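EI: anyone free to look at a 120-residue chain?
SC: sure, send it
EI:
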Amino acid sequence: MSFDPATLKFDDRGLIPAIAQDAQSGEVLMMAWMNAEAVTRTLETGRVTYWSRSRQAFWIKGETSGHVQDLVDFRVDCDRDCLLLQVNQTGPACHTNRRSCFYTALRDGEEVELMAPMGG
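SC: here you go
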């Protein structure tokens, strides 16, 4: 069965959440938004492309930073309203220069930083 991005369930802004996961370790790296064109570009190029809500523009992960995400596997959830992108991540995934955007945990009601920014 061939895939058609139009079969995905986009929100009222034409967006769908996309979770990026490290293909080797399984670590969740980040969440961002895609529209149908970003989905198509990602599948055609193998470089993960998101839609920036703040800039209203396509955003190829790592285009300016060099911290690219190469697509390994593209998965659609059971409701077709969320994507899981398994990627090979070069460098940090987070704009704060951390490996993952999910570096803050709650421990006994307090926020705890789990990882520092990466060097270099």
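EI: The chain has one helix and eight strands.
SC: 👍
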